[in-house]
Amino acid sequence: MSVILEQNLHFLVCHVCSSMERKKKNDKLFIYKEDVQREVEKYVDKLFSSSASAIILNKKANEKLKEYMCRGKFFRSCLFLSVCSALENTVSDSMLQIAGAFEWMQSSLLIIDDIIDRDEMRRHAPAFHVLMRSLDDGNIPSHEAEGVSLCVATAMIAMAHQIVADATASFPQTQARYITKLFSEAYSSVSFGQILDIQASAVFDEVGVSTVQSIHRYKTAEYSMVLPMELAGLCCNVNKKTLAQLYSFGVHTGSLFQLHDDVLNIVSEQDIGKSMGSDILEEKANIVLVFYKEEYGIEALRAVRASIIDQSITLKTIYTPEIEKRVFAHRTLLVEKAESELDAIKQDHPKLFDLLAMVLDWTYRRGY
Questions:
Q1: Spatial distance between the Cα atoms of 43 and 161, rounded to a whole number of angstroms
Q2: Spatial separation of the C-alpha atoms in residues 254 and 234, rounded to whole Å
Q3: Sign of the alpha-carbon torsion through 239, 97, 40, 82
Q4: Where would I find the H helices in 32-118?
């Protein structure tokens, strides 16, 4: 770990602990993982039990989808349930159903994202469209496997909405309407974030930090952090003030989450579960690359890119001390904004405060 990263020790004192203690705390974020996995498996079987899918898809496809969905971190669904528990001290069957819908949402988005980005790896294993190519003894052409995967992702989107509708059927009408509306809006948000990401790659020379921040917000923060917390708040009937605090905290923490993904794509020495260095090869709107472009110019970045392609230098060459300082400053600003929302939450919801401080700590230290 660099000196710059080691300097960022301004976290709330009550949440500073040893690595082992921190791991024990952060493991609590995922205590509902097995429960959600069972929900996912139940609805995979339901999807493949329909007459149409029984004709078109086989048992191997069922198992491939189940395998793909169940090897995820389940962060969003576990965050949703953890916030519900912090607010109500219980997790109902309806909440578990909604948690399962998060995984259908997440997996469908990843399937589409990997096809768009032409990534072959996801979650430390072959991407879903690659798994589809392996069916029929590996004789399925790439274009057919991608087409089938996109259709499966579309069916998964419908399943996610069906699950939410089933889970909220017994809720008061107004509450159910707000929950389904928020869930649908999150899909729209991440879709528009994906469009912005694609467009930014096409005009990379013109992309600035503000564009990358918008991508981070709409493609990641709105559905990875904001949606689980806001949806939990709606399920638990919290007031508008708390919903607004959850929203703001989610935006800042979700942006921090994506900032780390951008950095890890460039500097990580560990297997991060997907194609390493793909962002620079495809000139994606990665904040590290945009910082480098602003500091040294687009021609310097492309010269480094060419050297990385011919393997004369490593990816880490991009992460100069000046770029590291800029990443550190951006990370610090996001953490400070998130901590400000935490302070506002503490008085009314101390248990929620403890949970969200843990979420912030996990997000900040993820991958380091």
A1: 12
A2: 19
A3: positive
A4: 33-48, 51-56, 59-70, 75-88, 93-117
Mean pLDDT across the chain: 87
**How far apart are the C-alpha atoms of 216 and 277, rounded to whole Å?**
18
The token duo for 104 is: 């259908």
Main-chain dihedrals φ then ψ at residue 237, nearest 5 degrees = 55, 45
Domains of the chain: 22-170 (1.10.600.10), 172-368 (1.10.600.10)
| Residue in this structure with the two tokens 């912030």, named with its chain if needed | 360
- Per the CB < 8 A criterion, the answer to whether 105 and 187 are in contact is yes
What tokens does 110 get? Answer: 């990843």
Measured between alpha carbons, how far is 188 from 267 in angstroms, rounded to an integer? 31
Q: Taking the CA atoms of 249, 194, 293 and 301 in sequence, report the sign of the dihedral they define.
A: positive
Pairing mode, strands 121-122 and 125-126: antiparallel
pLDDT, tens digit, for every residue of 143-154? 999 998 999 899
CA proximity to 126, closest of 137, 140, 102, 110: 110
- The amino acid that residue 168 corresponds to is T
Q: What is the pLDDT of residue 43?
A: 87
**Rounded to two decimals, what is the model's pTM?**
0.88
- For residues 3 and 218, which has the higher predicted lDDT (pLDDT)? 218
* Cα 142 versus chain centre, distance: 26
d(CA 135, CA 112): 19
50-79 pLDDT tens trace = 655 555 566 677 788 888 888 888 999 999
Contact, 138 vs 144, CB < 8 A?
Answer: no
Q: Could you count the other beta carbons within 10 Å of the beta carbon of residue 18? A: 8
CA distance 64 to 134: 10
pLDDT on residue 46: 79
| The amino acid at 179 | I
The rounded distance, in Å, linking the Cα atoms of 156 and 110 is: 11
Place of tokens 């952060």: 26
